[in-house]
TrEMBL record:
The lineage of its organism: Eukaryota, Metazoa, Chordata, Craniata, Vertebrata. It is a multi-pass membrane protein. The keyword Ribonucleoprotein does not apply. NADPH oxidase that catalyzes predominantly the reduction of oxygen to H2O2. Can also catalyze to a smaller extent, the reduction of oxygen to superoxide. May function as an oxygen sensor regulating the KCNK3/TASK-1 potassium channel and HIF1A activity. May regulate insulin signaling cascade. May play a role in apoptosis, bone resorption and lipolysaccharide-mediated activation of NFKB. May produce superoxide in the nucleus and play a role in regulating gene expression upon cell stimulation. Its main location: other. This is NADPH oxidase 4. One of its GO terms (cellular component) is perinuclear region of cytoplasm. It comes from Capra hircus (Goat).
Length: 573
């Protein structure tokens, strides 16, 4: 399967360029800081005392400063949604980088973990060297008060606490824990506030110091009062002159007969603690993130009005609601917060219906998986309605308070900006496409989209009932408008014991579009490429990773029709 460089550059080029820039910044910071502490004259005596541990600890700290500042930016969801929706970033290829925000956040997190390990190991060596290499002539420079004492207690204590917090955050972020118990992930991840507070305290210890009087005390100079700060050599014709000047019978040594010049100390070395630079790195992103969180808190402090709650087959629940001045674009998602379920926990859900100029109603579909959604369902639906298999159940009652935060951007906003789009959904992954289909049902003419391939793969026949009515109405609409090729619907039932159909006379149009088994992706891409020669096709996927990987690979594949596929994937940030 040959890779098309044109498609590869469209899908991967900008992403890899940004990755290269990020790696280069990390390498440059590490190497520059390493050389500064290894060869810088102001750190001459400190380097003599600590050795390689000093260079590694400070170089890794520079990398940590950079990534501790960058890791917050992908979490500024409101800012990312503004950049995407306001067209402040005119290039679609550049806007697609915003879809990688979660990946970049994870990459920065892994980098922080790795270099935290390097930083801790280097400082353990430094603590040992401070004790072993204690020097009475450099009292200011020593972290220990006497030989064999372990100094730097306060920075060490805050460092240990930071490592413990980081360990909790990284272990609770693993896929297994996020799937089995999302509460643990959510609560531990919010410990990042504690982490940053400890970080600010950690750098205020002033453990490492630099020399301030390099002009009057060059490193390695000879003190005429008798202190020899380094094995510095004098030329032979100068040795007699300095022989008379050295007090205490400082006789002409052999080592003072080699070099051509000598450095003379005018005064004792003076040392001063480094000014902490970490706050310069993290203050901007941290203030930006805190300001956004405050804005989101104010924006979401008014509860929504729940219009209806519908129980769908296969443990899916639909909520329709209204909120004053709420606006959203197709493909965006919101974050639900129900204090009656959890005081702090909240979850993102893609909008399946967006408010328009004629109606203020918007809605989401929830798959009942996990403790939070189960408790949420029990509050909204009585037990008798939870077993509805085919026909939806609509319950009218007094609902608990529900707050929403958002909307936030997603890659599916771009699906209407392509002339041709391929939308692939797996199971409940159909939700982002539902809002797009609802938008096309209202009015498709304002958008650039002129052909939509919609592929939906489900394990059981009942799942298609979630949006069967919507698909039928949309299908009939375009037939009536003499645009039957505008939407190409293909439904795939991946697990079945025999031939099945979607029950109901009104679903006959969908039964003719229902296939048993899984899609033959390569043939599907070839057919789309053949029918859209020389065009750019937007590929959008929300479903299992197995499907996503296949589509990603096929999007980069070469074809003989000059068609380019641009791959997009749902990723909550």
């Amino acid at each position: 399967m040959a890779v098309s460089w044109r498609s590869w550059l469209a899908n991967e080029g900008v992403k890899h360029l940004c990755l290269l820039i990020w790696v280069s910044l990390n390498v440059l910071l590490f190497w520059k800081t390493f050389l500064l502490y290894n060869q810088g004259p102001e750190y001459h005596y400190l380097h003599q005392m600590l050795g390689l541990g000093l260079c590694l600890s400070r170089a890794s700290a520079s990398v940590l400063n950079l990534n501790c500042s960058l890791i917050l930016l992908p979490m500024c969801r409101t800012l990312l949604a503004y950049l995407r929706g306001s067209q402040k970033v005119p290039s679609r290829r550049t806007r697609r980088l915003l879809d990688k925000s979660r990946t970049f956040h994870i990459t920065c997190g892994v980098t922080i973990c790795i270099f935290s390990g390097v930083h801790v190991a280097a400082h353990l060596v430094n603590a040992l060297n401070f004790s072993v290499n204690y020097r009475e002539d450099f009292v200011e420079l020593n972290a220990a008060r006497y030989r064999e004492e372990v100094g730097g207690l306060f920075p060490g204590l805050t460092g240990v606490c930071m490592v413990l917090v980081l360990f909790l955050m990284i272990t609770a972020s693993t896929y297994a824990i996020r799937v089995s118990n999302y509460d643990i992930f959510w609560y531990t991840h919010n410990l990042f506030f504690v982490f940053y507070m400890l970080l600010m305290l950690h750098v205020s210890g002033g453990l490492l110091k630099y020399q301030t009087n390099l002009d009057t005390h060059p490193p390695g100079c000879i003190n005429l009062n008798g202190t020899h700060f380094q094995n510095t050599h004098l030329p032979e014709h100068l040795s007699d002159h300095f022989h008379e000047s050295f007090p205490g019978g400082f006789s002409k040594p052999d080592e003072l007969t080699q070099n051509t010049f000598v450095k003379i100390c005018m005064e004792e070395p003076r040392f001063q603690a480094n000014f902490p630079q970490t706050w310069l790195w993290i203050s901007g992103p941290l203030c930006l993130y805190c300001a956004e969180r405050l804005y989101r808190c104010i924006r979401s402090n008014k509860p929504v009005t729940i219009i209806s709650v519908t129980s769908h087959p296969s443990d899916v629940m639909e909520i329709r609601m209204v909120k004053e001045n709420f606006k959203a674009r197709p493909g965006q998602y919101i974050i639900l917060h129900c204090p009656s379920v959890s005081a702090l926990e909240n979850h993102p859900f893609t909008l399946t219906m967006c408010p328009t100029e004629t109606k203020a109603t918007f809605g989401v579909h929830l798959k009942i998986v996990g403790d939070w959604t189960e408790r949420f369902r029990d509050l909204l639906l009585p037990p008798s309605s939870q077993d509805s298999e085919i026909l939806p159940f609509i319950q009218s009652r007094n609902y608990p308070k529900l707050y929403i935060d958002g909307p936030f951007g997603s890659p599916f906003e771009e699906s209407l900006n392509y002339e041709v789009s391929l939308c692939v959904a797996g199971g409940i992954g159909v939700t982002p496409f539902a809002s797009i289909l609802n938008t096309l049902l209202d009015d498709w003419k304002p958008y650039k989209l002129r052909r939509l391939y919609f592929i939906w793969v489900c394990r059981d026949i009942q799942s298609f009932h979630w949006f069967a009515d919507l698909l039928c109405v949309l299908y009939n609409k375009f037939w009536q408008e003499n645009r039957p090729d505008y939407v190409n619907i293909q439904l795939y039932l991946s697990q079945t014991d025999g031939i099945q159909k979607i029950i109901g006379e009104k679903y006959q149009a969908l039964n003719s579009r229902l296939f048993i088994g899984r899609p033959r992706w390569k043939l599907l891409f070839d057919e789309i490429a053949k029918c859209n020669r020389g065009k750019t096709v937007g590929v959008f996927c929300c479903g299992p990773n197995s499907i996503s990987k296949i589509l990603h690979k096929l999007s980069n594949r070469n074809n003989s029709y000059g068609t380019r596929f641009e791959y997009n994937k749902e990723s909550f940030s």
